[in-house]
Specification:
The complex is a heterodimer of chains A (131) and B (288).
Chain A lengths: L4 E6 L4 E14 L2 E6 L5 E4 L3 E7 L2 E14 L3 E11 L5 H12 L5 H18 L6
Helix pairs in contact in A: 1-2
Chain B lengths: L3 H58 L6 H4 L6 E7 L9 H18 L3 E7 L1 H11 L3 E5 L9 H16 L5 E11 L2 E10 L13 E3 L2 H75 L1
Parallel strand pairs in B: 1-2, 1-4, 2-3
Antiparallel strand pairs in B: 4-5
Helix pairs in contact in B: 1-6, 3-4, 5-6
Classes of the chains: A alpha+beta (131), B alpha/beta (288).
Chain lengths: 131, 288
């Protein structure tokens, strides 16, 4: 039995990844989840967070903001509004993202939640959110 | 008959024009490749997005609690036309053909008693529509400062459109852009984005939704607007460069023909002048 899933990570501007993954850890809106082969078909929205892909030759981390994931038994597709490989997220990029989130539309609660999520991301990858 | 000097200046000026159009054509070709790449890169996102939305929309469209972005406001009195054109000219009929279908659409709507509002993206469309529809303008998005089209530009436009929708300024929104077919053919297209319609791909798998189906739908619909605008912007960018490339190719060819014609005329009149001088000398010598 196949124990891998076809993982695709696409943002509107480019396709970031397309690999056979053993597991995919997603920052779902209702909590983190890990998708492996033969997962029940699920669609979930994402909160800003870190997406980790485990595949045969190692693990890749991506920072994703917004969007959703479509999980099926043989494939996981993540459609992120904005996604970057973790190594590309430098302090200045992160500051820019925080500024965008602060200026974001929506209710105060939504903006506050997005900001809190982003600060948590910053903590995880060792960047400060003092923009 | 123009003088030899005048002909010579004409030829030089047409030659430098040809150099310029040739250069513009090559620049457009390079930009076209990049624009096509960008459109190619964006395609998987748009396709997946629409597939998921089609499934969701199908499930939700029957229910009375469907979001307004999907079901509409219940009336179709006020139409917003988002006319997307280029910031620059010299690209053949690109801008005017988009303006033309927008104008037709607007005419048809007013004939049936609807109100039309126009949001222009790109300077050229604004100029083209100003005379007939200047009063209907509600806003303008200037992209001339944008070097590389990014999703954020589309998000800005999307936010603008959604804010107007939430404020009840219109009931139906349609975008006008040019779909890229090939270098010689771009198809001006009208596409309704609000209320949203998604082409369903037939049977969709039964999904678990997290959070609820409604929450996902209301979260994704505004993004769908931005996604569709982004796809249209990219198509437009590729079309613009394609149109410019073929327009400049034509111009270069015309300039070449003109140079040939002028050169022949120049040579003829030079020869006529020489013959004339010879006759004068000979008849002068004979008179002695």
């Amino acid at each position: 039995m196949a124990d891998t899933v076809q993982f695709d990570l696409v943002s509107p501007e480019r396709r970031l990844a397309s690999v056979q993954a053993r597991e995919v850890q997603l920052p779902g809106a209702d909590g983190d989840m890990t998708a492996m082969a033969d997962h029940a078909p699920t669609i979930t929205t994402l909160r800003p967070g870190i997406l980790r892909v485990v595949h045969a030759s190692g693990t890749d981390d991506y920072v994703v903001f917004g969007g959703f994931a479509e999980i099926g038994p043989t494939a996981v597709s993540v459609l992120a509004e904005q996604a970057l490989p973790r190594s590309e997220v430098t302090q200045s990029v992160f500051d820019g993202m925080i500024a965008v989130a602060k200026a974001g539309s929506g209710s105060v609660d939504e903006v506050a939640k997005t900001l809190a999520d982003m600060i948590a991301v910053g903590d995880q990858i060792g960047l400060s959110a003092r923009a | 008959m123009p003088s030899l000097k005048a002909l010579k200046t004409r030829i030089t000026s047409v030659k430098s024009t040809r150099k310029i159009t040739k250069a513009m054509q090559m620049v457009a070709a390079a930009k076209l490749r990049r624009a096509q790449d960008a459109a190619e890169q964006a395609r998987p996102y748009t396709e997946r997005f629409n597939a998921v939305m089609a499934g969701l929309a199908q499930a939700a469209s029957g229910s009375a609690s469907a979001p307004r972005l999907l079901s509409g406001t219940g009336s179709d009195k006020v139409h917003l036309l988002v006319v997307m054109t280029a910031e620059r000219g010299l690209c053949g009929g690109f801008n005017s053909s988009i303006a033309k279908i927008a104008r037709q659409h607007a005419d048809n709507l007013t004939k049936t008693g609807k109100t039309v509002k126009i949001l222009t993206v790109g300077k050229k469309g604004r100029e083209a529509l100003k005379r007939d529809w200047g009063k209907a303008f509600v806003g303008h998005v200037d992209l001339s400062a944008v070097k590389r089209l990014g999703y954020s530009s589309a998000q800005d436009i999307g936010r603008d459109v959604l804010a107007r929708f939430d404020a009840g300024e219109f009931d139906v929104a349609t975008i006008f852009y040019s779909r890229f077919q090939s270098v010689i053919s771009q198809i001006p297209t009208a596409q309704q984005i609000i209320p949203a319609s998604f082409e369903s791909s037939g049977a969709t798998a039964l999904y678990d939704y997290e959070p609820s189906e409604e929450a996902i739908l209301s979260d994704l619909l505004p993004r769908g607007v931005a996604t569709q605008i982004f796809a249209a912007l990219l198509e437009n960018a590729a079309s613009e460069q394609g149109a410019r490339m073929s327009a400049m190719d034509n111009a270069t060819r015309n300039a070449g023909e003109m140079i040939d014609r002028l050169t022949i005329e120049f040579n003829r009149s030079r020869q006529a002048k020489i013959t004339n001088e010879l006759i004068e000398i000979i008849s002068g010598a004979e008179a002695l």
